[in-house]
Amino acid sequence: MRNNLRERLEFEGFSTEGAETSALARKMCENISFDIILADSAEGLADINLPFIILSRNNDIDSAVEAVRHGAVDFLTKPIDMNRLLKSIRKAIAPPPESASAPHAKPARQRNNAECNTIEPIVGKSDAIVHVRQLIEKVAQSEARVLITGENGTGKELVAKWLHCKSHRAEAPFVEVNCAAIPSELIESELFGHERGAFTSAIKQRKGKFEQADGGTLFMDEIGDMSLSAQAKVLRALQERKISRVGSDRDIEVDVRVIAATNKNLEKEIREGNFREDLYHRIGVILIKVPPLRERKGDVAILIDYFLESICREYNIPTKKIDAEAIAKLSDRRWSGNIRELRNIVERLVVLGNNPITKEDIESYC
Q1: Confidence label for 107 from pLDDT (cuts 50, 70 and 90)
Q2: Distance (Å, rounded) from C-alpha 266 to C-alpha 324?
Q3: Contacts of 280 (CB under 8 A, 6+ apart)
Q4: d(CA 147, CA 223)
Q5: Taking the model in full, what pTM does it have?
């Protein structure tokens, strides 16, 4: 139900996060500026200082009274009436009306800006990664389309997020789509949306990623895996700044900055007939190559320290140390999975290793 609610609310234009427990919700609220919480219990929510709505299986009056007594702004029973829920959310997060004497105040809902404040930094001091950070600073404020290349796990998505958050679009949506994870027959619907009845399972109208990202940034990850037919439609969208939903002949104007990423050699893909050359030149105005970890071994120790601190904080335990021999052992690895692999190994060592983490821990668990 939590996932279904997120999908419906994001279709309605809200940015959402999911938490399985109230403890996790409290932790997320420390880092993200939310406007409202939807929960099935008021337990642990009263002192978060955010409005909350209870969605309960209990439809008795005592449950409703108890929820309101704990501070709930509304109490809805399952199955949820979405129209009533949307009305309740909008009422709860609406800014107070301005009086003639009151100074102008922005509405509280600055979700994407708050998200930008919690993005992980691009860690490292090597020349290669310093160059990447410098390119981000130079390019972010422009409207130039950017193609980010690099192996899996190098941090291409993180580069895209920083490009968005340092741009004038930072308070608008940052929408991601993984072109490799979507079947070719569904990619057009995912990108451009569809009308009700456009195909067998299209039981309702749906906005695509281009519309969801209107005014902001669309990050197209693994664009090299997109079918040629979808590439042609993306090219049209970039050229004309218009899209049409599947099953519709009506054009919709969109204002989107596209940032693309791939782990493939697109020039080779063009030669082999798998990627359109005209689309390559459209998306690759600026090229940013994210180096693999084996080419920036001097950053391994810095990244280990960063991950130790952040993972231990996430686990709510004192930060573990790591000795010099263990760092040297890790620095000698090939890191085929790059930074993603390094983070996973550090997390494994936090859980299984001693304090300080030793060379023997590396040999035992890695």
Answers
A1: very low
A2: 41
A3: 147, 266, 267, 270
A4: 9
A5: 0.68
pLDDT digits (tens, 9 = 90+) for 181-208: 888 778 888 898 888 877 666 677 788 8
Residue 366 is predicted with a pLDDT of: 86
Dihedral Cα 189, 193, 197, 203, nearest 10 deg: 100
CA–CA dist 277, 142 (Å, integer): 23
